[in-house]
Structure formats: C-alpha cells, structure tokens
Amino acid sequence: MEQKTETHSGLQQGGQDEIDLSHLVNIISRAFLRICVITTLVAIIAAVFISDLPPIYKASTVLQLQIQQARPIAIQGVLQNDINNKDYFQTQIEILRSDLITEKVINELNLSQYPYYTQNKPLSKFAEIVANIKNKLSPATTSVQVINPQAFIAQIKSAVKIGLIKNTPLLTISYEHYSAELAALIANTYADVYIQHNRNFRVQQTITASLWLKEGVQALKDNLNLAESNLTDFLQQENLINDSGIDNFTATELQILTTKLNAIRSELISAQTLYRQINQAQNLDLLTSTSIKALSSHAVIVELRNDYTRVKNNIAELSKRYGPRHDRMIRANAQLSVVEDNAQKELQQLALGFKKSITLLEQNESAVIAALQAKKSEHRTLIRQKARYKELNRELTSSNELYNMFLMRLKETNLTNDLNLSTVTITDIAKTPRAPFKPKRALILVLVILLTLMLLVAHALLSALFFVNQDNVKNLAVPLLGSLPNFKAINKKFEQCSPQKLFQTNNVIFEATQSLRTSLQLSGVTKKQQIIMVTSSTVAEGKSTSAIYLAMALAQSHKVIILEADMRKPSVRKKMGIPNMQRGLVDILTKSGNLNSYIWHDQHSNLAVLSAGELTDSPSNLLISKRFSSCLAILRSQYDYIIIDSPPSLLVSDALIIGQHSDFNILVTRSNKSKMSELNSTIELLAKHGVSTNGIILNQEPLKNDKRYQYYYKREVALAS
User: Fold this and answer.
1) CB 257 within 8 A of CB 375
2) Exposed e or buried b per residue across 6-25, where buried means at least 16 C-beta atoms within 10 angstroms of its C-beta
3) Would you say the pTM of this structure is higher than 0.85?
4) Residues of 479-503 as b/e, b for ≥16 C-beta within 10 angstroms?
5) Which of 607, 528, 613 is nearest to 573 (CA)?
6) Which residues contact 144 (CB under 8 A, 6 or more apart)?
7) What is residue 493's predicted lDDT score, i.e. its pLDDT?
8) 426: helix, coil or strand?
C-alpha cells in the first residue's frame, strides 16, 4: 500500500496571509443585507424609545469666589480663610455637594411637599401603555408616594452639577429636572443657601473669636502681672537694679588675679631651683664654677669668689719663692682657710634666705589661689543672676506684647460684630430654560446606528477571519473540492427524511452532490483515488452526511461502498435506515465469516454499506490489525470507490491509522461555524503523520453565498407551488 508522505508547503501560511482591502470589502458585501436589515430594525426600535424619552431642562447659576477679600481692620486676619490655597475651590465644591446644603434647599423650597415628588411621576407613552395593560389585568389602588428623607436628599443631589470655570474664580451650580421652572428655582436656591451658609459661618467665626479673645485677654493679663511680680521680687532679692555691668568688674578682677598668680608661681619656681642648686653643689664649686648663671652673678658669691681668688693667687706667688714651712706660706694658707670658712657660712645664710623666700612665695600663691576661686564662684553666681534676669525680663516683654495684641483684637471684634462680609457673590442667576438640555435625540440615534454598524461589521470581519468560509479556505494549500448547502434550510424535515429520498427528490441537494462528485473525479485524473477517507476536525461538522451523499453521487455510475469506520459514535446506520441486527466492521475484524455477508445493499441508490456493527472499547486496535488491511484489499478488488467515514482527527487517532491505507483524504468543515485554527491544526496533524489532505468540503454553506443554490432553491419552490 502506497504511503502518503506528501506535505503541504503552504500549511504554515494558511490563515496568516495578509488580508487585502478587496477581501474585506467582499466580506462586508456578503453581510451587507444582514447588516442593513439589523441596523434598520435597531434604528427603528431606538427611535421609538428615544422619541418617548421625557425632556430634561438644565438651569445654571454662576457664583464668584473672592480670591482677595478687602480687610477694613486687622481683626479680619483672625477670620480670613486661606482662600489662596489650591484646595480652597475644591473645598467649596464639596460644601455645596454636602447633605447639609441639600437639606437646607429642600426645607427652603418645601420640596418634600412638591407635587412632582409627592405624586407618581408622569410616565412616557410607552410606559403608559404598559401601565394601562397592567391595570386592566390587575387593577391597582392609587397610593401617595412615601418619601424617604435620606433617599430624597440623594435624589436631589444626583441632579446637581457643580464645577469651576477654568482659570477663573467662577463656580457654576447647574440643576437638571423635567420641569424648567423647578430647575431654575432649585439652582438659584442652592446659590442663596450657600451664600447664607457662608455668611452664617463667618458670623459664627466672629462670635467664637470674640469669646476666645476675651478669655485670652484675661489670661494674658494675669500672666503679665505674674511676670512683673516675678521680676521685681528677683531684683529685690538679689539687690540689683538691672543687668548692666553685672559681670564686667568680676571679669577684670579674675584677669588681674590670674596674672598675679602666674607671676608668683614663676618667682617660686626660680627660687626653688636656686635653693636646690645651692644644697646640691660644693662650696668650692660655687666659688670657682660659673655654670650656675643665676648664682654666679649674685653679689655675695661675687665677693666670696674675689676673696678666694686673691688668696689663691697670693699663695701661688709665695710658693714660687718660699717653701711650705715659711711663715708667709703658713699665714697665706691660714688666710685661705678663713676665706673658705667665711664662704661656707655665707652660702648657708644665702640658702636660708632662699628657703624663707620660697615659704613666703608659697603662702602668697595659696592666698592668690583662694582669692581666685572665690572670685570665680562669685562670677558664676553673677552669670546665673544675669540669665535669670534676662529670662524674667523676656517673659515680661512677651506677655506684655501678647496682652496688647489681644486687647487690640478684642476692641476691633466689638466693632465688627455687625459687619458680615461674604466671600461669595452671584454673578448670573439661573433663568428658566426654553429648550431641553437632553436627551439629544438625533445624536443618540446617530450613535446607536453607528454603534450597531460597527458591531455588525466587526462581527462579520471577525467571523470571516477566525471562522471557516470560502475566502479563508481558498487561502490554504489544500484545494476546496466543493460545498454542501445547509440541508436544514432547504428542507425543514431534513432529519426526518432519509438521505436516499432527499437525494432523489431535492434538486438542490442533488446538484450540490453532483458538483462535489465532478470536482472529486477531476482532481483524481492524475492520482489514484479508490479508497477515500472522509474525516473532520471535531464532532458535528457533517462528515458522515457528506460521506453518504458523496457515496450516493458516485454510485450513480460506479460501484461504491461506504465503510463506517467511526466505531465510537457511528451514525451511518441510523441515517441510511439499516436494521440494528445487521452485522458490520467490528464483527468482521473480531469474528470469522464471509465479508459479503456483512455488507448491506441499498436498492434505491445502488450503494453498498458496511456499517460499524457492534460497539467496541478498542477501535484503534482493530484498525491497526492485519484483518483491516485484508478487508480493504478484498474491497479494492470488488468496488470502484471505497468511502471511509472516519472519526474526527483532533479527538482520536483513528483517522491517522486509516489515512495510511487511503488514496484520497477529504476534510469536512462547517462554514461560518468551525474555527480556522482547528482546521489548520487538523491539516498539520495529518501531515505530521504522513497523511496528506487532498481536498476540503465546506459543509452547511448558506444558500445566499452561492447563486446556483439560489437558482435551484427558487426552482424547487416554484415546482412545489
């Protein structure tokens, strides 16, 4: 058996080609009549309802919010709102929309007793007709409408529109109502109530400010008296007049004491140094050495050094002429001893003098330190006194300023109690409108017509782009064999009549199947097409019906058998009127017997039928068996055409198995019902498994899309009449 490995190069581009303008025009032109009819009906219905809508009138009042209010006296600073704030206008709008203002408007006009609200609203003509019919069927007693206060306030508020005129301090209050006079009256009343509310609010602000100022003045007066008393008591307690010169004198004294202390310490250090040097040095060293500069220049040391030097020089001269036992040498050495003894005594007296000087300097240092500490303590006390004085004086000054300011504001408030300034004025009052504001009947009707046209055109385009039709199928690489009409539209009793009868009696069905047979035979001129598999993407696409009528058309001139391979949900037996006891394909593949004994022959159409037979749980196992191949081989030798009704390809794999044995594969799809995505998926799936799709049958094609169907259909109607 020849395997089909042919693939379609145009599969990927099917459904993805760009749609040109002419194609869109063709789609819209085919749906033009339906679009026009539906649009006309919608326009008529809309016109009836629009003409019956009651007119609504709109009246507007314009208010001016003062951005910079004149302030005749300073007290207005207490009452002045920050109306330059960017949120001020929005605040005023929310005040106008509040329940408080609406309730005041209702009470001002006594709207709760207004006939329009206490009685039932006038009905439109259409509503009156419906109401009269209801009253005739079930008469109802007339009752006075009960008004819910909260619902009534919400109802009035819903008709109020408040907005700002751009880049101006102007605010509009608009009211919409079925009554022109009432619309103007409510709009003006809203403005009056808002202005009065604004004025009352400012008056209340003035009164509140006056009371607050009075309380504040008394409290500030008490604070001022207390501050004066505290400052006086402090000055008396500290024996001060004011803070002038309170710390200048003490700072000078501290500086003098610090300088004196530094001088004493310097002198003390110097004396201690000399004293240590005298105690540590030898007498001779002090007389002969000049390394201690401070002692070498001392008067006593200089005199002792001179005596010592003179005696030493004398001894040196005598030693040159006399011996050591000479009288002069003895007297000279005795003089040297006397000089050394005198030097020792003088140095001891000098050290004692330094020690006394050190003691005195230390006493002076202690005295200066004590005086410095006392002066520092005194200075810190003066600093605290000055700080306390400044604090009390500052408190007195601030209390005095606040008291004077509040006293002035209080006096101004007493003068402005009767001055009621409003930040809002009416620029334009609302006048009774002469023409209704809405509904804009012509505009609504035009919009309804345009919206209907858009929806219908969009529906037609989307249906044509995403659902199967002749244009989409022609763009596929798979050829379109033909189309079958919507049999139910041709014959309302289509499901009750047998295919044999309809094929023989209905010219539309007959000619459609003849055209399909011709297209099939012409497409098979260069290709063998004995075994023809008919499948679909999903259920309810008419594959079994298409297979039956195609088989009957071929049976007029050829020996044809239709094989019902859809063993999961068979329908050929029921459509052809085959008895339930008739055995079929399942019996052949599972039991032994003569193949011809399982075939049922239709005497009217000369068509042989091999039905599915008994239901089985594993149809795929039967189709893949060798018995099925043998069965097809026997049928090939006995029939010119073998039409196989296969299950849907996207749901089960039976069609993939059957396609390995078939010569020609036909894919049935529903016009305007099946999706192009499913059709493309089916073609790709079959091609992936080596099963080529050789042709497409467009089922349930509307009669209006094909002039030949219209011709036959009109002829059928003429013959029937």
Assistant:
1) yes
2) eebeebeebbeeeeeeebbe
3) no
4) eebbbbbbbebbbeebeeeebbebb
5) 613
6) 118, 119
7) 62
8) strand
The CA distance from 560 to 547, in Å, is 12
Q: In degrees, to the nearest 5, what angle opens at C-alpha 387 toward C-alphas 384 and 392?
A: 125
Segment 373-426, tens digit of pLDDT: 887 777 777 777 777 777 777 777 887 888 788 777 777 766 655 555 557 888
Rounded Cα–Cα distance for residues 320 and 553 (Å) = 179
Two structure tokens written together for 61: 């009042």
Q: How far apart are CA 699 and CA 468, in angstroms?
A: 10
Mean pLDDT throughout 304-328? 80
Q: Which residues pair with 57 in a beta bridge?
A: 177
Pairwise CA distance, residues 13 & 476, whole Å: 8
Residues 36-57 have pLDDT tens digits of 999 999 999 988 888 878 888 8
Given a cut of 50, is residue 667 above it in pLDDT?
Answer: yes
Q: 67 to each of 88, 92, 97, 194, 366, how far by Cα in Å?
A: 10, 13, 21, 17, 78
Please say whether the beta carbons of 656 and 690 come within 8 A.
Answer: no
Strand 641-645 to 531-536 pairing = parallel
d(C-alpha 502, C-alpha 490), whole Å: 10
DSSP 8-state code for residue 660: T
Whole-number Å distance between alpha carbons of 687 and 8? 7
State yes or no: pLDDT of 670 exceeds 70. yes
Q: What is the dihedral of CA 23, 24, 27, 29, to 10 degrees?
A: -100
* Lowest-pLDDT choice from 51-65, 294-308, 511-525: 294-308
The burial of 720, by beta-carbon neighbours within 10 Å (0-12 exposed, 13-18 middle, 19 or more buried), is given as exposed
C-alpha distances in Å from residue 346, one per residue of 195, 300, 332, 483: 115, 7, 21, 155
Residue 335 to residue 324: CA distance in whole angstroms: 14
Nearest of 605, 609, 556 to residue 579 by alpha carbon:
609
> Distance between CA 566 and CA 575 in Å, rounded?
14
Question: Which residue stretches of 239-280 are H helix?
Answer: 248-280
Helix (H/G/I), strand (E/B), else coil: 336: helix
Q: Which of 523, 525, 503 is nearest to 514 (CA)?
A: 503
Q: How far is CA 183 from CA 64, 174, 263, in A?
A: 21, 8, 103
Q: d(Cα 25, Cα 454) in Å, to the nearest integer?
A: 14
Show the DSSP H helices in 565-639 as ranges: 572-576, 585-590, 619-623, 626-638
Strand order in the sheet with 57-65: 160-164, 170-177, 57-65, 424-428
Starting at the edge strand that comes first in sequence, how are the strands of the sheet with 641-645 ordered?
A: 480-485, 695-701, 664-670, 531-536, 641-645, 560-564, 607-610, 600-602
